[in-house]
Design a protein that fits this description.
Keywords: Amino-acid biosynthesis, ATP-binding, Cytoplasm, Glycosyltransferase, Histidine biosynthesis, Magnesium, Metal-binding, Nucleotide-binding, Transferase. It is found in: Cytoplasm. Pathway: Amino-acid biosynthesis; L-histidine biosynthesis; L-histidine from 5-phospho-alpha-D-ribose 1-diphosphate: step 1/9. About 35% of the residues are buried. The chain has about 280 residues and is of the alpha/beta class. The radius of gyration is 24 Å and the shape is globular. The chain contains eight helices and 15 strands. A hairpin with a 5-residue loop joins strand 13 and strand 14. A six-stranded mixed sheet has the order 2-3-1-4-11-5. It has a five-stranded mixed sheet with strand order 8-7-9-6-10.
């Protein structure tokens, strides 16, 4: 089997979750906190720990077969890579922010203004799409201090909670793009059998995170009403109980669907409802 190389962030907000999802796929590796390369002992895979800005280029050039990186980094780099799977973590938004005292209320008022950012490519495209001619000033790190130092009238930066903006006297103004961590590969890499197997593992882990295992008791007279509300992977499993008039229903359901149906289940006669996490779901 071919030994794959996957590049992930060495340090930063995506590192911990990237390591977590790989370990949840059953991959065994060590020294990921002190080494630039870690070898997986139970799968043909080497993990490269890189700066996130370098990951798309490493994948594009074939140095790494796969990578985990934020969509914003991919778009900014302009690298030609294939999106294999959105991973559901590292979600954030690239936004334009302005000083709290600013009277700007619409994008057109950015005309002629100076905007500081670490994402000039994305920002320039956004401004062009909105027919705004503004000065883009590229700053590496600490973009939020730009207006306070008189370097810019606004900033364009990644916003997760908004706490950094608030502490620097800024407020979000306009959304430029949404981003989350994605698994990327070089064009055609998804055809490799090793990549297909790793993708299956990742998708099984992701699917499990979105679903719950539900067990409940219901009188046989109300069983059909409950089953109609709780379709399982194929159909719910119904198990007889000691009380012959009652059964236990086992089902797998998307978590958001469960919370939407909980009151209907109770109204249909469901009792003793237990909700449990699922580690993996193999399609």
């Amino acid at each position: 089997m071919k030994t794959l190389k996957i590049a992930i962030q060495k340090s930063g907000r995506l590192n911990e979750k990237s390591v977590e999802i790989l370990k949840n796929c059953g991959l065994s590796f060590e020294n990921y906190k002190s080494s630039l390369i870690s070898t997986v002992t139970n799968f043909p895979l080497e993990i490269l720990f890189l700066r996130d800005d370098d990951i798309p280029e490493y994948v594009q050039d074939g140095i790494a077969d796969l990578g985990i990186v934020g969509e914003n980094v991919i778009v900014e780099s302009g690298s030609e890579v294939t999106y294999l799977q959105k991973l559901g973590f590292g979600k954030c938004t690239l936004k334009i922010a302005i000083p709290n005292e600013s009277d700007i209320t619409e994008v057109a008022q950015l005309e002629g203004k100076a905007i500081a950012t670490s994402y000039p490519v994305i920002l320039e495209k956004y401004l062009k799409d909105n027919h705004v001619n503004a000065e883009v000033r590229t700053i590496s790190g600490s973009v939020e201090i730009g207006p306070g130092l008189g370097l810019s009238d606004a900033i364009c930066d990644i916003v997760s909670t908004g706490g950094t903006l608030k502490s620097n006297g800024l407020k979000p103004f306009s959304e430029v793009m949404k981003s989350e961590a994605v698994l990327i590969g070089k064009e055609g890499s998804e055809l490799l059998p090793e990549v297909q197997e790793l993708l299956q593992r990742i998708r099984s882990v992701l699917r499990a995170k979105e679903t719950k295992y539900v067990v409940l008791n219901v009188a046989k007279s109300n069983l059909k009403k409950v089953v109609d509300l709780l379709p399982g992977v194929k159909s719910p499993t119904v198990v007889p109980l000691f009380d012959e008039d009652w059964v236990a229903v086992h089902s797998v359901i998307a978590e958001h669907d469960f919370w939407e149906k909980i009151n209907s289940l109770k109204a249909a006669g469901a009792q003793g409802i237990v909700v449990m996490p699922i580690e993996k779901i193999i399609a």
